[in-house]
Amino acid sequence: MNLILNAFAFKEDYGSSMQLNNRSDDSKLRTYMKNMVVSLVSCKLKNPGDTVCLATTSEPTSPYKEMLEKAGVVIRIIPFDKFLMPKDFPWSLAFYKLCVLDTLIKEGGFENLLLMDTDTITMDSFEDLWQEAAHGLMLYPVNHTYSHKDRMIIKEAYNSLYPDGKDNMVHYGGEFICGNREALSQLMEYCSSIYEDVKKSEFNIPKNSGDEVILSMAAALYVKKAPVITAGAYIFRYWTENGFYLVATNTVSNPVCVWHMPAEKDTGVILLYNYYCKHGVFPEREKAASMLGIVSAKRPFGLYHIMARFNRKFNK
Asked: Which of 120, 138, 219, 276 could bridge across to 178 with cysteines, CB 3.0–4.6 Å?
């Protein structure tokens, strides 16, 4: 069995997303519910033979629960009782995904598992993804430079916990954690060990640490025994927002099957949700890209390509 899931914990007065910090709890909850509908229903439509699941701390409200169940999405209530972080950590609830992974891996019952963030949409089948995941652990390196502020948080946390350590902290995104059960079991052993060290330090790591901090440190241990498969062929972060202009070649040409849209939680993803409510399906690639502020390019086109076309036409 292939298992695909979102993991979502919601508690009043806890920060669920840095992108929605100025929103009330009720408003944030509705936004996340709509995001989950887009993420999970689009995934089920493209992968009808796979088990698609929402792991959460309490049942979704109406009409979102009914929309998920009608599409064939399984809803699992899983307590948030592991990987607990202090309330003053803005990303404290994001660590719920590690709790869910730990629970499901110990339960077993699946061959391959993919955990995705809620602000995603699936545009294609996961047939290739599952064949690759069978070989081990797949994570998404977000290509941050050595001094990028987000990567620096991971290095600062690592240096605080392990001052004599010499590992290079690659920043792996928490929006995509995938692999076979054996590989994920090993990863979670490392995650659990690192979390225990965080607790022993009395949470002496940067307060803006997210689940990616523990994930990236665990990956640094994992790669000493087995390689991490780069997931960039299957997922991409599209940082689009008002006034942002992005030309992307991986929406139509050599396309990725999962689009992650961190800044579109309450804008572009809501447009996709409204489209689904009206039509019962999600828009095709180019229309969806347009709704998200992405210009789909089938191939790069510039002066070189203009001259190449000229030469082909007149030098036959």
From this structure: 138
Residues in the chain: 316
Q: Answer yes or no: is 281 within a domain.
A: no
Angstrom CA distances, 29 to 24, 40, 43, 148, 216, stand at 9, 16, 21, 31, 28
| pLDDT tens digits, 297-307 | 665 545 444 44
What is the pLDDT at residue 19? Answer: 44
Does residue 309 belong to any structural domain of this protein?
A: no
State the amino acid at position 141 in one-letter form: P
Q: Is residue 307 part of a domain?
A: no
3-state secondary structure of 28: helix
Q: Is residue 198 part of a domain?
A: yes
Q: Which residues pair with 112 in a beta bridge?
A: 2, 180
Domain limits at 108? Answer: 2-236
What gap in Å lies between CA 266 and CA 288, rounded to an integer? Answer: 15
Q: What is the pLDDT of residues 8-43, one digit of tens each?
A: 998 766 655 544 454 447 888 999 999 999 999 999
Number of structural domains in the chain: 1
Instruction: Using CB atoms within 10 Å of the CB of residue 299, give its burial: 0 to 12 exposed, 13 to 18 middle, 19+ buried.
Output: exposed
Q: How large is the average pLDDT for residues 198-214? A: 97
Query: Between β-strands 120-122 and 258-260, what pairing exists: parallel, antiparallel or unpaired?
Result: antiparallel
Q: Residue 170 has which token pair?
A: 């690659």
Closest Cα to residue 82, out of 114, 115, 106, 46? 106
Question: Residue 25 has what pLDDT?
Answer: 75
User: Residue 219 — pLDDT band, cuts 50, 70, 90?
Assistant: very high
Cis peptide before 141 (omega within 30 of 0): no
